[in-house]
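Good morning N.,

You mentioned wanting to compare the apo and holo forms, so I went ahead and generated the holo version with zinc ion. This is what I fed in:
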Amino acid sequence: MGVALLVLGAVGADLVRRGLHQARLPGAVSAGGSSRRVRRDTVASAHGASAPADSTGSSRSRVRARIAEEADFTYIAATLLETDSTIRRWPDERLSRPLTVCVIRDRVDGFRDDFVANLNYALGRWNGVLPLGLSAGADSASADVVVTWTPQLDSGKTGRTDLTWDRRGYIRHAFVTLATHDPSGRLLDPQRMSALALHELGHALGLGHSTVREDALYPVATALELSDRDRRTARLLYELPPGSIR
Ligand SMILES: [Zn+2]
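and this is what came out, ligand included:
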């Protein structure tokens, strides 16, 4: 169900997304011909300079073997199902330079200052999982990750993360949109916002959805803590070289 919703959401998302970003963040989205974008959504009903990847066949075989080893402890396989079997993540060079995060506090309907604290909570949960850090306080023009709020999202979602990445599979920007209301019009409380931010930041790091309810990346975001599977999947993602595993 979650995967089906994601696919349906992705089909119609591109035009909407480009329009939003051009309107809100002029110049922030790479317009290069090689960049591509993906949208990930969170269902709301209960509450989403390294060397180029070695593309040789033997390297891909090793990557596939590593993924198979971790299959029972991670949702990396489900992530790859959502990315056409391509590893996408931030470049290794960012392991020594934290990702910069811009938090846009637009006073949209339903916004409350608590939500910024909820986002910071989620940033804190992800910090330390990876050598890759997340540091708030950047401006929108220079930030790697931009977080904003909107009163409501379409398609039955409360969160959305759009990524841009280059042809090698390195993520270049992430845009996270958090809704202050669920699709039924109910205001999110701080607990749900924390779970939503934790989920969407996982997408911003390159993770796809889990099929296990207790994981932060389960399509219906309720987890307030990262599970062992969340942490292990993220670490594996940053152990593997970006690019196609086929
Ligand atoms: Zn999601």
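The first strand starts at residue 36 and ends at 43.

Happy to go through it together on a call whenever suits you.

Best,
F.
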